[in-house]
Amino acid sequence: MRLNTALTKLAGLIAVAVVVAACTEDLDNSAGCPLLCSDQGGQIETVTLDPVVLDTTVSALTGLGTEASLFLATRGDTIDSRGVIRFDSIPARFQRSLTDTATTAITTVDSAFIRLRVDTVGGKIPGPVTIDAFDVDTPANDSLIAPVAELFRTDRLIASRTYAPTELKDTLIFPVPPAAILARRGGRLRVGLRLRAAGPVQLRILSMEGASSPTLLSFRVSSDTAVRPIVLLPFSRTPADQPAVAASLADYTLLVKGTPPGPAGSLNIGGLPASRVYLRFQIPAFIVDSADIIRASLLLTQRPNRGVSDSDTIFIVPHVSLAANAVTDVARAAQITAIAARDTLRLVPRDSGLKVIEVGTVVALWRSQDVKRTPRALVLISTREGQTPVEARFFSTEAAPALRPRLRISFSKRQSGGLP
User: For residue range 166-177, what is the model confidence (pLDDT) as tens digits?
Assistant: First the structure.
């Protein structure tokens, strides 16, 4: 209930912050928007602070199967990521028409295929790409990776299909042998997908959470064209006692080998498993509580990530933390957030040097936040969290003073009188 109240308050504050943000476009012109921002006729001061009292990299804690896409990648010694799609309701009988109440046993199957929705943005396609499909049905616990990964072997292979780069568009049709359907009548078909090519390869398959027209399994059970094909969406019956978790596990990314960890003491955003950065601030009260904030910029010094290519990019969005002081676990506090800044930082992870994220709306919101109850904190999150191995790295407060996170604030001591 406390979190819901905080979210309601934040929604109202963001609306106010839009007005504040409208006054921050031209710092060199004190005559700009004199009616809405009459305080800008006064002196504007700019200070650069070292206000970060806590910064750390934490796990994104995204639930298995909640990602918007399944990340398929085979990149040598760095990334091995696969996909699992569950069809736990293969029928044993069918109706010849919608009005026919009688059912007929399925004895034949043809024209079977899985339709996959592909997102190649950020993909690496070195040439022809082969998708291998394996039977990964196992009684093992749903959350365990090793028992499922072990089933990607020759004796469990269902089918393989090679695609030319020009075929990797919005939709892929992956043929399925009819015997694979017939053998699982009245049971379940759980398909594991693995990608391979002549070199490092990766692409994304849109998941049930990320596609308006998701993956489906289609097959015909009669030569009579009046009988419609059977079409099934991904569906999981397990874990039986947790329906919400089961719904997420209809399709999910199976991360066999993830991103190599960043240097000790660095702030890492993105990667697989996904990470985000939590920053807690202590800002002089006269700035946040009394002055009019004109602009606020978070200054971060990027560390180069040589484990990615020159073409890799990442987009980072600052979120405001809503977690109260009662939430002592920082990793958990980093999950209780809301977007409150308009700026998105685009980075090439191999780059280095000073990077700037505009956070003026967040600092303005902090004025009405009771610091005794809710710490002033930001959480930096990749816009494709859990969907890409690309990771951005920054120096933390443990680094030399010139490399640490800082906050540059432009403000006016003169209070706004508003419209006369």
Answer: 998 889 999 999
